[in-house]
Design goal:
alpha/beta, TIM Barrel, two-stranded antiparallel sheet, 13 helices
Length: 390
């Protein structure tokens, strides 16, 4: 399976001022207070594991460059990443994994996820990612969390190139996809709203322009507020912008450079804020291409300072980039390298009612689930306690 959804091709310096058409005051649905930033973690639903589905997917192997069946001296499987999941490489369709993830988010004070999403068409692994997203949503509902779609309209470009769609069919296809989302998701309580309108993000836009988006979103019962990347906001016709770690030209990006990017991002009204731990991709090590660049983690300081900048700018939504993009090294979920560092920082800022010690409970539950019937009663009891906690 190829690396669908690589973000890096669009990382460019922000060179234009944001012009918004949305209101200056955000009113969030779902009990999130207007004076409290909504914390949404960008989530990748694209991992496949041999223990769960009988094969290792491309997001662990990077097109066969690494073999997770090979065990290293430290006991870890060989994966195409600089960080290693605390629970080991996993499968995005595994209900035990989904339970683990949403409980970690709940206990750390994260309000929901932004799911990287490619539509509903059978092409490449798009349908599989869609099915994984559908499997995630009930767990979010159970934990009282929200979700937002980050639509990859590059999927249209790839389907046209593969002959699955013609250029003439592309707009109508995307319109059909959005109508499906409108019927199935936009009206659900679990979907995140701004001013009673669903939030829709697009990583780009990479394919559609302003007039095409008007057609794609036209006629929906609930027309979403559309967010795009800053340097593509005007040409793509989105309502507002969200940022991304600004790596470029395969070099190390200094603190001064990425802080200047954030300063420019926050000159507009109501951009979605950005907090990220760093950027350390694996493409060059896997022989895929030259690295897109590097933003050092600086022992957690990059995450703290980018978070500070978003809060000081009074961003009403802060996107945590990312929960689990191992290929690009922007991971905040617990890893062997960083432990619970990033979720403990989120927990502190969110003023979560849970303790740092309680953040370890989902990993314990995951281990009990994997132990099978011998620990089923203990696992059921622990899960009930964690989900019942307000």
């Amino acid at each position: 399976m190829h690396k669908t959804g690589s973000k890096s091709a669009l990382r460019q310096p922000y060179s234009m001022r944001i012009s918004l058409i949305i209101a200056a005051v955000f009113l969030f649905a779902g009990g999130i207070q207007a004076d409290t930033p909504a914390l949404l973690a960008h989530y990748m639903p694209w991992f496949t594991s041999e223990p769960y589905r009988g094969t290792w997917g491309g997001h662990w192997t990077m097109h066969g460059a690494r073999n997770p069946n090979k065990i290293r001296e430290n006991g870890q499987r060989e994966i195409a990443a600089h960080q290693y999941p605390l629970i080991g490489p996993y499968d995005s369709a595994d209900p035990h994994l989904l339970e683990y993830h949403v409980l970690l988010m709940k206990l750390s004070g994260i309000d929901g996820v932004i799911v990287d999403w490619y539509g509903i068409k059978q092409h490449s692994d798009y349908l599989e990612l869609h099915q994984n997203t559908q499997a995630l949503i009930p767990w979010l509902e159970k934990a009282g969390l929200k979700f937002v779609l980050c639509y990859e309209d590059q999927s249209i470009k790839h389907m046209v190139k593969a002959g699955v769609l013609t250029k003439g069919e592309s707009v109508d296809h995307a319109r059909e996809v959005m109508q499906w989302v409108d019927r199935q998701w936009f009206n659900r309580e679990v979907y995140f709203n701004i001013n009673h309108r669903p939030l829709l993000m697009v990583f780009g836009p990479q394919y559609f322009n302003r007039s095409q988006w008007n057609h794609v979103l036209g006629g929906l019962e609930k027309r979403p507020i559309l967010y795009g990347l800053p340097h593509l906001h005007e040409s793509g016709g989105t309502d507002a912008s969200f940022g991304w770690p600004p790596v470029i030209e395969g070099r190390e990006i200094s603190r001064e450079e990425w802080m200047a990017y954030l300063d420019q991002l926050y000159t507009g009204e109501n951009p979605i804020g950005l907090a990220f731990p760093g950027f350390h991709d694996y493409y060059e090590q896997a022989g895929q291409r030259k690295s897109f660049g590097h933003i050092p983690h600086r022992e957690g300081k990059t995450f703290i300072e980018s978070f500070d900048r978003a809060e000081n700018a009074h961003a009403q939504i802060i996107q945590l980039v990312t929960w689990n993009d191992y290929g690009e090294g922007t991971v905040i979920e617990p890893t062997a390298e960083f432990g619970y560092r990033y979720l403990e920082e989120v927990q502190r800022r969110s003023k979560s009612k849970f303790t740092s010690a309680e953040l370890r409970s989902p990993a314990r539950l995951y281990q009990l689930r994997k132990a099978g019937s011998t620990r089923k009663k203990e696992a059921t009891s622990l899960a009930a306690r964690l989900f019942a906690r307000p």
